[in-house]
Amino acid sequence: MTSHSQPSVLWQRRSTRRYNPFLGFFSDYHLGLFVGLSLFYSLEVVLGNKTLKKMVSANVSGDLSSEMEVDAFRRLFPLRYHERFLLDSIRPDARPLGRARDTSLALGAVASADGSALAKIGCTTMLAAVKMEVMTPPKESPDEGSIAIEFYMPPICSPLVRPGRPAEEAPVVSKQLSDTILSSGMINLKELSLVSGKAAWMAYLDIYCLDADGSLFDAALLAAVAAFSHLRIPVVSLNEEGRVVVVSEENEEGKSEKEPVNKGKRKLTLSSLPFSLTCILHKNYILADPTAEEESIMETLVTVVLDSSGQLVSLYKPGGPVLAYASAVQDCIALTRQRVKELKSILNEAISDMEVD
Amino acid sequence: MEIGRDDGRTANQLRPLACSRNILNRAHGSASWSQGDTKVLAAVYGPKAGTKKNENPEKACIEVVWKPKTGQIGKPEKEYEVILKRTLKSICLLNINPNTTTSIIIQVVSDDGALLPCAINAACAALVDAAIPLKHLAVAICCCLTESGYVILDPTKVEEQKMKAFAYLVFPNSAISIIPEGSSHMEGELMEHGIITSVTHGVMSVDDYLHCLERGQAASTKMSAFLRRSLQSQAPNDSSRAG
């Protein structure tokens, strides 16, 4: 139906538009091709996919109509589109199979939090912030603090998340993050204790996903680790009732009678930071750091978390049509080792940039 | 090397397994699986017409509901649901009944360690009982690593809490199966050695993990033989059930 009206509109435009030297000579051919292509699309189901493929391979020339056709092919046959790139060991965004997207870290993104970081892997963006509060430790562990980790996927991050339709991945990533951070032993909970049996720190780590474009767990873990590296424990002192309160910086002068319980703002000592890499297994290929489009087409994901001493913190493969043999597992772990080195250097650079300021 | 476990088992010994099918009479398929004191009941309803909003209507859809024994549904339950859903999706033949939903409800009856593997085994047996078309069966096992570096199988809850690390592994089990096109089959690697699902807790070295994989593969052959025997020996379903 639309193909009938389109030629008349284009004929009108052709007569009124100014002569474009680039297009001028080819515009008739251009137009005819466009009409022909739209007819072909509507007949695609009848003629079968071979016709479409022939068309795609014939149009190697760089005229403007080929862009639209490539986009349509990408939407109609996503798996075939990606496999054509995989045959050349490359991906649609020109990355080789084992390379992750560009990663950047900014520490101190949230000024009011005690520690914060903004991590970006490609387009996936995560904002992590740590807030410390004093609480009474439970009886079973009187000289240990605790950490509460929460991961949010607000509707800003993806068109599939709406206020009444929470994302399926949010509680899963949240639980994975808390398991990974607590079991990796990055933070010694005894460091979070203030007065044994009476007061200890509770660290609330909140991670907000601002843009969900694949590898959510990787970006969230990087943001969490960076936020803890940036964390400065606030100064506290005992007030008249014997409770521990945080000393605020504005009214320092009148507080001579209150001795701070811990002097100066100190950082946490972090041992063995965990870093992760998510890979997709598809037939014989292993693709590192998938985008959301790749994740939705090729559904087998493997997430490997290694800490800085090379120990395996977690290997998470939640089902998926492709089986992982020992060789594939070894390859994923090798890719993760390389990635750990990259991420460590990015984190150290970000920390040293903060300290220079 | 013999390590003394609390209940006198050796490192490679599994707890006594019991599986019974067709125990609920309203569900289209049901099974209960117990490993020692851990018991899980699974019920399957389906295929029902229609899929959920974001799912692909050209394929069948699977929905899992996990009910804990006590307490409210929280994040651990949601995580188990997602893991189960993806594992079971990979063993079902999704193209046979497009635009349908199959619901699997898991009820934890008692938890004494290795809960997720027990639930996966129960769900697989319930799917067979409901006659949902499957590519192959799945067998789940829990391997843990002790402080001294030994790998033991199928821990109780007390043992699980003392362990340095543990891994839940799910292997495919097939005497005859439909091999997918273009599957990455290396020479010398059997299909039964590929992992469908792996979930680990705790820090372990890469060699320990590969060691766990080998032990898990060896034990999965025993479990899959038990699964096949118990599924074959029970009486065929009567056709009077609604389906």
TrEMBL record, chain A:
Transmembrane segment boundaries: 29-47
Family: Belongs to the RNase PH family.
Keywords (A to Z) from UniProt: Cytoplasm, Exosome, Membrane, Nucleus, RNA-binding, rRNA processing, Transmembrane, Transmembrane helix
Protein's UniProt name: Ribosomal RNA-processing protein 43
InterPro entries linked to this entry: ExoRNase_PH_dom1, ExoRNase_PH_dom2, ExoRNase_PH_dom2_sf, Exosome_comp_Rrp42_subfam, PNPase/RNase_PH_dom_sf, Ribosomal_Su5_D2-typ_SF, Rrp43
Places the protein is found: Cytoplasm; Nucleus, Nucleolus
Residues annotated as domain Exoribonuclease phosphorolytic: 100-234, 273-322
Lineage: Eukaryota, Viridiplantae, Streptophyta, Embryophyta, Tracheophyta
Record bears the keyword Nucleotidyltransferase: no
TrEMBL record, chain B:
Single Gene Ontology MF annotation: exonuclease activity
Keywords: Exonuclease, Exosome, Hydrolase, Nuclease, Nucleus, RNA-binding, rRNA processing
Principal place of residence: nucleus
Superkingdom classification of source: Eukaryota
One Pfam assignment: RNase_PH
Family that this chain belongs to: Belongs to the RNase PH family.
Protein name: Exosome complex exonuclease RRP46 homolog
